[in-house]
Design a protein that fits this description.
The chain is of the alpha/beta class. It has a single domain, classed as Spore Coat Polysaccharide Biosynthesis Protein SpsA, Chain A (Alpha-Beta Complex), CATH 3.90.550.
């Protein structure tokens, strides 16, 4: 029987300008890196995990996970990483119908992320789903069918489209809701102040 769980794609390809450069995924929160926290949360929810990064891919070799670069050059944004993940799934995991993308800078992702995104998509009869907490949508936290990859490639390479929500709106995107309090599960670490806040949240 095929594993119906999606392929998990951890997006770690950003430039981390507000942190002064470096890999945000390697920042330690509560004694563990954000990347370790993301891997621990997503492993039970996914058939497999891969990491999307740019630059020297060997810097993530210690994870033991496949590490893939954007297939569209010049830091084309999260959609380029998502396309790379869809292409990897088609080539290496042809039995998997969907990928789920999550940022590599969110230390508190929910353990029911996949099930709730999938349920929202089924209920709304939409091909795509993304997360929302409170009033904030998180288009990078989403469920993406592999069979839309050529349409996405055309949008990126022919149309020059880089805004996720414009592309997802074309196909139809369901929304799965989480409360933003007491802790927003999609809190992301962008600045030194965010590191301080995340340490406070993670403290026992």
């Amino acid at each position: 029987m095929n594993d119906v769980r999606p392929l998990g794609l951890i997006l770690a390809g950003g430039l981390a300008r507000r942190m002064g450069g470096g890999d945000k995924a390697r920042i330690k929160i509560g004694g563990k890196t954000i990347l370790d926290r993301v891997i621990a949360t997503m492993t039970p929810q996914c058939a497999r995990l891969i990491v999307n990064a740019n630059g020297d891919l060997a810097r993530f070799a210690d994870t033991g996970l496949p590490v893939i670069a954007d297939s569209v050059p010049d830091f084309a944004g999260p959609l380029a990483g998502i396309l790379a993940g869809l292409d990897w799934a088609a080539a290496h995991a042809p039995d998997i119908a969907d990928i789920i993308s999550v940022p590599g800078d969110c230390p508190f992702l929910p353990s029911d992320l996949v099930t709730r995104l999938a349920a929202a998509r089924t209920q709304a009869k939409m091909p795509l789903a993304c997360a929302r907490s409170g009033d904030w949508r998180h288009p990078v936290v989403g469920l993406w069918p592999v069979n839309l990859r050529e349409d996405l490639r055309r949008a990126l390479t022919v149309e020059g489209l880089h805004k996720i929500e414009i592309w997802t709106a074309r196909h139809g995107v369901a929304i799965a809701d989480w409360p933003a309090a007491p802790v927003d599960p999609f809190f992301n670490v962008n600045t030194p102040d965010d590191v301080t806040a995340a340490e406070r949240i993670a403290a026992p």
